[in-house]
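= Tokenised fold =
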Amino acid sequence: MSALRRKLGDEYQVVSTSASGGGLPPPRSAPRGKRQRFVDKNGRCNVQHGNLGGETSRYLSDLFTTLVDLKWRWNLFIFILTYTVAWLFMASMWWVIAYMRGDLNKAHDDSYTPCVANVYNFPSAFLFFIETEATIGYGYRYITDKCPEGIILFLFQSILGSIVDAFLIGCMFIKMSQPKKRAETLMFSEHAAISMRDGKLTLMFRVGNLRNSHMVSAQIRCKLLKSRQTPEGEFLPLDQLELDVGFSTGADQLFLVSPLTICHVIDAKSPFYDLSQRSMHTEQFEIVVILEGIVETTGMTCQARTSYTEDEVLWGHRFFPVISLEEGFFKVDYSQFHATFEVPTPPYSVKEQEEMLLMSSPLIPPAVSNSKERNNSVECLDGLDEVGTKLPSKLQKITGRDDFPKKLLRMSSTTSEKAYSMGDLPMKLQRISSVPGNSEEKLGSKTTKMMSDPMSQSVAELPPKLQKLSGGGGRMEGNLPPKLRKMNSDRFT
């Protein structure tokens, strides 16, 4: 025990749920009455069909399956009875033929040819039938060619014997090779456990295969049987709900070589979303586990079943590891197959945990402080639009984008929000507005530079002589005659 505590930690307590494993039994609440199960631990369903009325004739329509489903004692009784009746009937037919032909009275006459030689009475007729049916052929009793009715009976006996042999021997062979016996070597843990795995509350149970031969295409499914009442008032005593054990991820397809722990994650889609440690004492449910696969040796489909009631689900437990690495192989210790140990697990349901998480960290949506600040933001936005119409054409083109975020402009009423909105402005406007006191000067210089473009265009429209005279750029006014200087100034103004 001390070595086990060093391995798992002091906060864990080992609990064995089987008589073979040492340890204390799991603490349980006060014992209830005997729980009526829908499926026994060995997989047998506690269902009886009654008041069939005239529907019993359907069993005779499928006679072969009916015989296979019967118990062994009834199969043996039908097997012996069928052969006994068939043998007595056929022996009686041979005796009747001998009696009607008078072979019984003339059997010792050497000059008389009977239908069947050396048949004197019913026992001799019975022995002749057994020798013919079993193809023993002692050679003392044989059929002759003077008896056409005997030949016809011999053919009928051969056909009927083949049918009876095929039916009864085939039925016995199928019953002996039924995959139900293969299910005896598939194990399920005696208890299921609920604990945290990968940060989620998980329902777990264990399956194992005792044989070395594999179960091909093994698949596992789980059903939750629980009574409930519909909103319309209908009571469902055995409502079946599906428990997801990895159908969406493919985890339900098992490679059953060593014992596996099957997990069902309890979330908002799980029927156990409201289940807590406290509510387990009042809940009544049954978890039916179905394991299906193909037997590798015979190729027949095998199904193993078991169930877990609410008393067999351990809250805050985990299964003990059973696989260890030896020299060159992995060893499975089935003595600890059913053993569990306690682990720290919250006693609340998943729904309660989510509600507590939301209450501990509420989300506060952002909002504007008052309507006055909202109106000021709108007025600033309108004023900014009017200023934008007075800017030069290039600046209006830059600031007149359709994708300009107006919401961020409305949020620019405060200094921090204004700094946040400047991140979406173009780089030129950011540089202009980032330097305090110089924005108007730079904006004016930018406007002056842009206003000089019409001046250059007007010079390009002058006659060639005047363009030649204006090549000096800034010295153009000094070289022109007074009349042309006056005309040029009137044109530019």
